[in-house]
Design a protein that fits this description.
Layout (H helix, E strand, L loop, with lengths): L2 E5 L10 H9 L6 E5 L6 H14 L4 E5 L4 H4 L2 H6 L5 E4 L4 H8 L3 H11 L3 E5 L1 H4 L4 E5 L11 E4 L7 E5 L7 H10 L4 E5 L3 E6 L2 E6 L3 E5 L5 E2 L12 E2 L2 E5 L4 E3 L4 E2 L1
Parallel strand pairs: 1-5, 2-3, 2-4, 4-5, 8-9
Antiparallel strand pairs: 1-10, 6-7, 9-12, 10-11, 11-16, 12-15, 13-14, 16-17
C-alpha cells in the first residue's frame, strides 16, 4: 500500500527535523534512496541543493535532485530512469500549477506513479502537498467565504476524495477549504499547518510535527447555498463536521473519524 506524506510547508530543516527524519525512515533509513523533484519552483537548483544537504546530514547517502524546467525535461527517458531505484520521492514547494503543468501526462509522472504503486514513499511539501490528491486548490481569498475564495484544478490523483491545503493556520485558509468541501461534499478537506505532516498509509493518516491538521467533512450537510456564490452571496453551509488533530492522533479516511 502506498505511503504518502502531506507536509504543510516550512518544515524544520535545522533542528530535530522530525518530519524529514520520518520521511527517510519510511524510505528505508540508512538504505534510503531519495529523489527530490523541484519542478514546482523556479529556484530548483538552490532548493534542491538545500534538501540534498539536509538529507545527507540526516544520514541519507543517496540523494538525487531532479530539476525540471520544461515538459521536455520531464519527458526524457534518462530523467524517468532516475526513479527506477528510489525508495522515496520528495516534491518541493513552489507553485502547484507549475508542478502539475510540467509533469502531468509525461513519462516522469508515469514513472512516479509506478514507483509509488511499488511501495516507494511519496512526500510533498506546501505546493507539493496540494498537488497530490485528484483535486487541488490553486488559489483564492482567505476572508469571507464567497465565490472568490477558491480556484481549483485537477491534481495528480494519488489520493482520491480529499483536497489538501497547506500553511493552513498561518495563512488563515479555513474559509477557502470550507468552500472547497461545500462544492464537493463527498471530498474531505485536509488543512495542514506549517512544520506539520499527515502521514497516510492504508487509508489512515497520522499527524506529526508541531502544529495541527484540520479535517472538514461536509458529507452530512443539509443546508447549502453553494449555487448562489456565483451571484455574489457569501457561503452558508450546515452542518459541517470539523476534526482537529495534533501530533500522535490518527484519522481514518474511510471511516471519516479519529481512531
Amino acid at each position: 500500500m502506498a505511503k504518502i506524506m502531506f507536509i504543510g510547508g516550512t518544515e524544520d530543516r535545522e533542528g530535530e527535523c522530525l518530519i524529514l527524519r520520518r520521511f527517510l525512515a519510511e524510505a528505508g533509513g540508512d538504505l534510503a534512496r531519495v529523489a527530490v523533484i523541484t519542478a514546482a519552483t523556479r529556484e530548483g537548483l538552490r532548493v534542491g541543493d538545500d534538501y540534498r544537504r539536509v538529507f545527507q546530514v540526516l544520514g541519507c547517502a543517496w540523494v538525487d535532485v531532479v530539476e525540471i524546467n520544461s515538459r521536455e525535461d520531464a519527458g526524457r527517458p534518462e530523467v524517468s530512469a532516475i526513479l527506477a531505484e528510489v525508495t522515496g520521492v520528495f516534491l518541493t514547494g513552489g507553485d502547484q500549477v507549475r508542478l502539475t503543468g510540467l509533469l502531468g501526462g509525461t513519462t516522469l509522472e508515469n514513472a512516479l506513479k509506478e514507483r509509488v504503486a511499488a511501495g516507494c514513499v511519496l512526500a510533498g511539501t506546501s505546493a507539493g502537498a496540494s498537488a497530490l490528491p485528484a483535486l487541488m486548490i490553486v488559489g483564492g481569498e482567505t476572508d469571507t467565504p464567497d465565490r472568490d475564495s477558491i480556484r481549483m484544478a485537477p491534481g495528480f490523483g494519488f489520493v482520491p476524495d480529499i483536497v489538501a491545503d497547506q500553511h493552513f493556520a498561518q495563512r488563515g485558509r479555513i474559509n477557502r477549504l470550507l468552500v472547497a468541501v461545500a462544492m464537493n461534499p463527498r471530498v474531505l478537506g485536509i488543512g495542514i499547518d506549517e512544520d506539520t505532516a499527515a502521514c497516510l498509509s492504508d487509508g489512515v493518516f497520522e499527524v506529526i510535527g508541531r502544529g495541527t491538521v484540520m479535517v472538514i467533512d461536509a458529507a452530512a450537510t443539509r443546508i447549502s447555498n453553494i449555487q448562489e456564490l456565483s451571484w455574489g452571496h457569501p457561503l452558508t453551509v450546515s452542518p459541517v463536521e470539523i476534526h482537529l488533530l495534533s501530533k500522535g492522533f490518527c484519522f481514518s479516511l474511510l471511516r471519516r473519524r479519529i481512531i
